[in-house]
Amino acid sequence: MNNDAPRQHFASDNYAGMCPQARHWLLEADATGHQPAYGDDIWTQRVSEGLRHLFQTDCDVYFVFNGTAANSLALASMCQSYHSVICTPQAHIDTDECGGPEFFSNGSKLLTTDPAAPGAALAKLTPDEIERLVTKRSDIHYPKPKVVSITQSTELGTVYSVEEVRAIAAIAKRRQLKVHMDGARFANAVAHLGCHPSEITWRAGVDVLCFGGTKNGIPVGEAVIFFDRTLSEDFAYRVKQAGQLASKMRFISAPWVGMLEGDTWLANARHANEMARRLYHRINSVPGVRVMHEPQANAVFAYLPEPAIKVLQNEKGWKFYDFIAGGGCRLMCAWDTKVESVDAFAADIATVCAALR
Ligand SMILES: *Cc1c(COP(=O)(O)O)cnc(C)c1O
Q1: Which atom, in ligand 1's list, is nearest to the CA of 14?
Q2: 121-150: average pLDDT
Q3: Are 142 and 286 within one domain?
Q4: 250: Cβ below 6 Å to ligand 1?
Q5: Structural domain boundaries enclosing 311
Q6: What's the average model confidence in pLDDT over 138-149?
Q7: Where is the Aromatic amino acid beta-eliminating lyase/threonine aldolase domain (predicted)?
Q8: Domain end call among 243, 262, 281
């Protein structure tokens, strides 16, 4: 590492700290002195109300520490141990949660779709693939499909359109499957689509949304939002048993006040998406770089020459992943990524690639 190692990196949007609005309300929550614990505080109630207002529906809201818990517990609430969950091969629930969904559901199996199916290269499920998996087996020896899980925006930085979500939910409904949305980067998807958040969730047929806060500027915490309230029965017990019930819950919930106020969540996501677009335009025509697809959310996926990756990481001190979601480098922008950081990174990519030729 050289001494000029840049402060901002492109490894993950969770490298970023908390945004000023989140910090402000975190401190405000502290200033309210003694508050009831375990979510009975004014802050948790205010934010839950705020989320119901945002989504324009009477949803049931819970807060947990991270996305793995949010997904695992949400899926467990919909599945018996003999059920299964349909997802893509890139799905975070399958590749990055250490078996959490299977563990918390006491064994529900994840059924991943065909990596060669249409849509798979963009980490998307399609109605046809869902139909194929649901109808593949109907005998007693195979775990019964119960849930379709989609990630919005996806693990490859792509975004399902409103129509795509609707079509998936329609086939799910026909096949009596529930629809779960891993929204670790939900904000980035809404920012890209320019739609109302209700349009790609409950209005499209989504039953449960794990709404990510951490990657969007919250210090810690994700919201689990049940649009179908029949699915959240006893969910509070599940959260507690899993060690995910924060006693001082106000410190997880209060920062969301700052995210909801003035649509900070959307502004943060728009900025991150814009930085990814900027990075894309800066490196797309660099000889040796092959961008996998145009970014829609806040990540650029690109193949770089192997020696270039080594130099960028080991000599230039840039941090980014080169193994996520099956090939290519994942270059991730955050709510606080600076234009100068993007430009400096892009310039180094260009310089290093040129030196190899
Ligand atoms: C980051 C992320 C999560 C949450 O991960 P945690 O580290 O458990 O908070 C969930 N899904 C996707 C797609 C993610 O990128």
Answers
A1: 1
A2: 95
A3: no
A4: no
A5: 264-355
A6: 95
A7: 10-304
A8: 262
